[in-house]
Task: structure prediction
Amino acid sequence: MNVLEKANAIKNGELTALENVNNYIKVIDEKNPSINAFIEINKENAINKAKEIDEKISNGEEVGQLAGIVFGIKANINVEDYTISAASKTLEDYIGSYDATVIKRIKAEDGIIIGINNMDEFAAGSSTETSYYGVCNNPAAPGRITGGSSGGGAASIAAGMCDIALGSDTGGSIRNPSSHCGVEGFKPTYGLVSRQGLLDLSMSLDQIGPISGDVTGLTLALDTIAGYDPEECTTLNNELPNFTEIAVNTKGMELPLKGMKIAKVKEFTEVTDDKINEVVDKAIDKLVSLGAELVELNFDYIDICLPTYYLINYVEFFSATRKYDGREYASRIEETCGEEVLRRIEIGSYISQQEYSGKFYKKALQARSLIRNQINEMLEDVDLIVGPTVPKLPHKIGTKLEPMEMYAYDVLTVIANLAGIPAASIKAGEVEGIPVGLQLQAKPEDDEKIIQAISAFEL
Ligand code: GLN
Result:
């Protein structure tokens, strides 16, 4: 049963919201101690909300499109009465005093929040190993990292602990763990979803998006959280398609991707391990068998993507962390944070001080334009760019990586954030039992084309 079918079953009384919640509580009780996907769980709250929804349904009252659907929320999105720590000691005592816009919308549609997902500290990582609450274990490849930074969200979906997890993606944090855990994750066009209530990592790159086990989980979430927010100035004020309808209609078609042009990029293949490329190529063949036309394109700037991304990230993160000065709701970040967060603050501070000469940040912004312009040019000719999500398999927990080795995981995902385009990762297949993701990227506001391809791919 996919998430939409489940939502319908709950509305029709074939399944109760309480049964759905109780099933998940059972799995969480059993698996969370070893997986560590949730760092806070509020069973009572979820049970009460489920009972309320079931009562409304049995009374014939109208309920929202997410009625009874169970969510995990990344620990950097404000949810009232939960600890919103961003998995950092710095914020271990910070209790969310309000709901982020996305949370308000989920609640308004009767979605049920069961808990808060583990993540890399302040979303600065690709492995969930930097969490103050301990590493998260990959349910699809036990003993390996989940990827990150939304590792808890992806793991909670892979382990069957909730229907939808909400993550954030600054340079791949939704797509990378989705790839490593064998689930589906979607980073919307920059501005499609409100960031109000998200703790910034790098505000010109951050987007909130869903992780789920099937496309209807992604689309039900998107239909709920996407759209203009008067409280957030970067949100787009455009009419939106109904993503769920698109996903459902695609499933009824014979050659659902007929007329769609997709591109592989030579340089993306070159930076990726051979075994991963083999699996990804098979997935691309499947898209072709569904009607898509495949071409090959070149991208000139693969070598500058990581330096550009990390430089912007350091500077914006440094500025975002100035409010954690120990006076209000947090302890002084430099005194309580972990190694990677401190590295970013120190380098970000240094770059900001040097910036009067325009040496670094200004150059990074120029490089960002080059990347964005070329990606957009490529997407003039094709509907989707398809390829691997992460160039390497997830490492075994406990393996020591240098910062540059860790950053290298992100080379294929940071591009979408630098360009502001939508991108998703779905499971392409496996290498020696370890999941491998297929990444799909489209033009700004062509999010629906990605949804169409994912829906077709699932057939
Ligand atoms: N791994 C990247 C980083 O460390 C991306 C993080 C993210 O998308 N939040 O910055």
Remarks:
- The chain has a mean pLDDT of 97.
- Residues 361-381 form the longest helix (21 residues).
- The two ends are 14 Å apart (CA to CA).
- The longest strand covers residues 423-431.
